[in-house]
Design brief:
4 copies of one chain form a homotetramer.
Chain A (H helix, E strand, L loop, with lengths): L1 E4 L5 H13 L4 E6 L2 E6 L17 E5 L19 E3 L2 E3 L5 E5 L6 H13 L4 E3 L17 H14 L2 E5 L6 H7 L2 E4 L7 H7 L6 E4 L6 H13 L5 E5 L17 H8 L4 E3 L1 H5 L5 H11 L3 E5 L17 H21 L2
Parallel strand pairs in A: 7-8, 7-14, 8-9, 9-10, 10-11, 11-12, 12-13, 13-14
Antiparallel strand pairs in A: 1-3, 1-4, 2-3, 5-6
């Protein structure tokens, strides 16, 4: 950490900052030249908050020089983490597709989807049993019954199941039926949930919050890993911006950035990012080109009759068209990566 | 709900939309003129999702004509709701101030703050025992011990206590010690928490999420009221934008908008919005002028030594200066309101 | 300027950075302690770009310690600048109101508005003759004829006239008729226009761009002052965010921030910020409470028949209600300012 | 256009809206069912502003059913527009790369860059002679001399030249030396500039504004086409969001969206979007996968000594690595497009 004093800072102001730091138990090192004074601080106890010092008279800037995350960082773990859940492998060079409906609506529905997306190349099956909905009057999900249907569908067709856990009390039941526990965008900073998922014993797919920075996403992952669960999959699902043509703005740069900063796998969710089915294919292909490890895509037997998210769900035929584009691009990327 | 067909929509496209709607069990009414066809839909069963119809060929626009919220709406409840918690009254024309530290750090600290803010005019005492922190390595709060300290401080000085509840499991313990349960910005769409707070029997202060629209804030309040708790206080605490001079951007327009759309009281949190103490006074006064029912302000015996949020916390002296500005403005607003 | 090296930076990396800086003609000063190296840079020739150094191996942070603006800064000019244009005074403690239609539509319209807003307390008259419109198919303004109407209306009723200049070629004609030249939000970084306004000899009202930071706004003002025109009025008119209830989000914090960073007067434009007339009064009052020097408000004889911006224009009666609230608040603020 | 009345609208309110519309010279058509009234409006004179009607009592929604743009629209011109400037072809299925420095710094520099980027596969040469800079104290460009250098470099190496025009007065000189005139993000809504470029007789590359919606970008293009110049190239260069890891957020969805809505070619500018060189390759490849017609990339002989934008400029070697990835991906996309 470094504190830069203003060129015009008085000796008295500089001394006051140094005294405050010593008071806080850290040893500042001071360096001066003709018109600037820099105060360096090394270490300091955990949780020490030095930000208030930034408000002292004469202080120009307060700069953090150390990365705020540790265990998610590539510095800490240089090789790619590969997360495996049965047939689903994320990280390590491939491109996996998780597909399925927004919500589990019936056993037949989820069985039917599982059969079809498997045949088209998916290795994971998505579907919500507990649905976070903006309005209390919207469909809230089938609950445990839905989880059972999903487990059976995953087993029947050899697909890893992915479903959202909404609160700490649901973890136990989710773990019983589901292979990968998803943390939704609205819960990305539900820190108690993150901590308890550290002991879940199943991989966690962590979606980026609508207005979360990449640093905050990685810190949220740090909560899970720090609590004992190294199997975290990051998911870029669009951020909230002023643009209204799409539901959210897919931040494609998040893919190479997370790859650079972290060893964790990262996938994209073009369905929630775009909120409209006509962009799923180009965004999925863009994800591959940007270096993503996979995608999670909404597919429904009859999107126009879906209980939720029908606008962005693909038909089987449309999903087949996406998958037809995936293979040649994944192949080409092997050559393109320098 | 209305579906507007494109001027160039074919008869076949129009017929297909009508057929789909009838299929979904609603009765469309069709009106045409020389170059537009409008399909109106009235009612429809709860939770029915018509959005996919918007994707059908020939559809230009899909318009919701009914307000998405009911119980929070001023249409439903024209008079202002007044929320009371002992000495704290929010709504109904006054301007109440809740003050205190970001986090409870010791019994002495919270007792000292309570005495001072009370003397300066506050009627509520804030302080966190469970702290949502971006990093797992930051101070996480004192937990139940802190709640006990806070309860004693509130009672000793005649202040209503306000503290954040972070998950469903904490509700029981919070209710035992605290007068107003706060839902933090990061939990605004933690729907299970909102539902369970419906049965908490204590007022809830609901903070707007960093990237939540006003509609989403009101829908989150709807969850609480719909689950049985009418005593909800809205809190505008800044939204995330591109501007970096302030931690967040206080959306001052949210105050008159919420007043117009809803009967619930709304307060502002200038401390979290600005993230810097030098703006607390002008923002608090702006809140009064915009029609807010109160403000929640961070005050610390020694902000430079605070465990968290010291940068935005006021000293007692600074808080006194804010309160000195509050009284004349509240008085003036009585005349200014037409 | 300071360059902070990563704790793990090698001696070779540190040496390379120092060599590069010397190469660029600056004298770095180096300070080290047990695990950090800080390189300070003082001065450097104008326009020198050191940012690429930030990309060199081992560099953690690159920190600017000097304010990017000079002439707009309060450090440079501690007293408030007061801009005067006949009866209109901005800065120095009062609160002035500029009112009028979005666009000049006829001589009768602008004369009528001038008479009415003057009677209700305005000292400036706004109205566009050249209109920046998103669509080429929208009304583009009356041009020079409109300027003549406006000049006559301003003179007849003792109001300073304010109108937008859209490009460098219009400056000459604008100066002939208008008292205060307005730079629109879309032109805030039209640097050639800013430079030429430096020689205009009339005050300039500079509107903040839709996505401009406060620093960028002040740098834009710096262009004008640096080119010879010290009479610049800043205008906060809302920034673009994800919220859709209002056309833009009035960044009320910009008012006290600009007051702190700069000596220039700052006003708010609640009409363009909100985009709806029902928020004009609370936002104007919030502006006063936040310390603004004035407001610019759209008023139209018959808003429902306006050629543009009718949705946000006030009737005379509504404008009278706003002005009725302004006086007591301005009075109260005299007491509230500590 | 459609006006939907609130379910609770009174007959009087409905009648008032109809009367107002008739007053404005349009013929409304009314349709009612048990609880909603819809008023349709067809046609209306150019520039008619109906928005104020949306403020009348009883009105629920005001819906535009017609596309706001005409000439840029795919409905108007179903086939892809192909823009050609000598060796540079944009649109029609290929992927072209325009490369070069941020600013022209000397004849040697631009000649050297031209030779190298040509050898690596570029068909266009970029470089600024007039630089829009946030600060008046930054390097402002070489002006006409730079244009001459650029013209010679383009001719010598068989590259089309692309350079930014900043104001209406520069068009004449730019046209003399440059093949493609670029409109910068800050000037996207400098409507006078757009109109005059309609008569420039050279293709125009129009960059999306930092906070411009896709609709606004297309309307800006409409200004140019409507003024007589059909050769417009759209450029997605990142939008301003809260994320700070990248300078802007590349909105990759803009590529397929513009392709869908318009017949104009669209390219991406990964250099300005990311603001850092380590993301240029993945973003360029993502652009190809999303369907872009090209990319414009900053390349500098020695980025660390660049006068501007050095942080995001590539060395020749890095540019070579990007180009090595481009070819296989363009090839693969031929197969991936369904």
């Amino acid at each position: 950490m470094i504190i830069a004093m203003k060129p015009a800072a008085s000796l008295r102001e500089i001394t006051a900052v140094i005294a405050r730091l010593e008071d806080l138990g850290v040893t500042p090192t001071v360096s001066k030249n003709e018109d600037a004074t820099i105060i360096g601080i090394v270490g300091g106890r955990k949780g020490l908050e030095l930000a208030p010092v930034a408000q002292m008279p004469g202080v120009a800037q307060f700069v953090e020089t150390q990365s705020p995350f540790k265990r998610v960082s590539r510095d800490y773990h240089p090789e790619d983490t590969v997360v495996r859940a049965g047939p689903l492998t994320l990280g390590g060079g491939g491109f996996a597709v998780v597909a399925g409906p927004c919500a589990i609506e019936s056993e037949q529905q989820i069985q039917d989807v599982a059969a079809r997306v498997k045949a088209l190349g998916a290795t994971g099956l998505r579907g919500g049993a507990f649905k976070p909905r903006s309005s209390p009057y919207s469909f809230q999900g089938m609950g445990e019954e839905g989880l059972k249907f999903m487990q059976r569908a995953g087993k029947a067709h050899g697909l890893a199941t992915v479903s959202e856990v909404m609160n700490v009390r649901q973890i136990e039941i989710m773990v019983r039926y589901i292979d990968v526990l998803q943390v939704g965008a609205r819960n990305m900073q539900n820190f108690d949930l993150l901590k308890e998922l550290g002991g879940a014993g199943k991989p966690v797919m962590l979606k980026r919050g609508l207005s979360a920075t990449i640093e905050e996403l990685l810190l949220a992952a740090e909560y899970i890993i720090n609590s004992g669960n190294p199997n975290v999959i990051l998911c870029e699902r669009g951020i909230r911006t002023f643009e209204t043509e799409t539901r959210n703005t897919l931040d494609i740069s998040a893919v190479p950035l997370c790859k650079q900063l972290s060893h964790l796998p990262i996938i994209i969710d073009p369905s929630h990012a775009a909120g409209r089915r006509d962009l799923i294919k180009p965004l999925t292909l863009a994800g591959i080109a940007a270096g993503a490890d996979g995608a999670i895509i909404e597919v429904h037997p009859c999107p126009d009759k879906a209980f939720s998210d029908g606008k962005q769900s693909l038909t089987y035929e449309q999903f087949g068209q996406v998958m037809a584009g995936v293979a040649p691009l994944v192949e080409a990327m092997r050559g393109a990566k320098s």
